[in-house]
Amino acid sequence: MGQGGRGVIFNIPWWVFIIFLFICFSGYMSFRAMRAERQLEQQFIEREGQIFIERMNQEKERREGSSS
Predict the structure, then answer these.
(1) Which of 2, 26, 44, 63 has the smallest set of CB atoms within 10 Å of its CB?
(2) Full-prediction pTM beyond 0.90?
(3) Which chain regions cross the lipid bilayer (predicted)?
């Protein structure tokens, strides 16, 4: 126990550290992709909502024009 816990870390094979790093990297990239997809989805929803509002305004103007 003279090494104080460092012996446990150095007894682990190097490829285990590589796998651990790849797992962390994969999680990070997955999080980034999820966040980017959510942002794209929000932009699509806003664009579709704007189109709907424009159609409603056109219909309102058409009805007001035909009733006069």
Answers:
(1) 2
(2) no
(3) 12-31
Per-residue pLDDT in tens (0 to 9) along the chain, 68 residues: 455 566 677 788 999 999 999 999 999 999 999 999 999 999 999 999 999 999 999 999 999 888 76
- Distance between CA atoms of 6 and 9, rounded to whole angstroms? 5
Amino acid at 4: G
Instruction: Compute the distance between CA of residue 58 and CA of residue 53 in angstroms, rounded to an integer.
Output: 9
SS3 per residue for 11-68: CCCHHHHHHHHHHHHHHHHHHHHHHHHHHHHHHHHHHHHHHHHHHHHHHHHHHHHHHC
